[in-house]
Amino acid sequence: MTESTDPQLATFRKSIDNIDAALIHILAERFRITQAVGEYKAKSALPPADPARETKQIARLRALAVEADLDPEFSEKLLRFIIDEVIRHHRKARGD
Q1: pLDDT mean over 20-42
Q2: What's the total number of domains in the chain?
Q3: Which terms are listed as keywords in the entry (predicted)?
Q4: CA-to-CA distance for 10 and 66, rounded, in angstroms?
Q5: How far apart are the C-alpha atoms of 44 and 93, rounded to whole Å?
Q6: Are the C-beta atoms of residues 72 and 65 closer than 8 Å to each other?
Q7: d(CA 68, CA 22)
Q8: pTM score, two decimals?
Q9: Which range of residues forms the domain containing residue 48?
């Protein structure tokens, strides 16, 4: 049996593909909402970044990662990447 003919591996991969698709849709929805936040912040003359909220969110997501048996370092890196992208969008909405 090879990788391409292994039915168990195919089942695992199908599940992974479904999860990947769900992640993309969830991220798209998250960015639609943060886009609206960025536009609101720009109209309201609010800064694009909120370091206090970021700190709280990172701590909250690290705790959730521990509960979910996911490496909290990984979850923080992923969230930091997302936050940095959101801030970039908020700066763009503000015209920076």
Answers
A1: 96
A2: 1
A3: Isomerase
A4: 29
A5: 12
A6: yes
A7: 18
A8: 0.82
A9: 3-94
Torsion of CA 71, 73, 76, 81, to 10 degrees: -110
Closest CA to 75 of 65, 88, 89, 86: 65
Q: 71 Cβ partners below 8 Å, 6+ apart?
A: 65
CATH number, domain containing residue 59: 1.20.59.10
At 3 the pLDDT is: 77
The span from the CA of 3 to the CA of 56, in Å, is 43
The DSSP letter of residue 48 is S
Q: Is the confidence at residue 94, as pLDDT, over 90?
A: no
- Residues 33, 39, 41, 44, CA torsion sign: negative
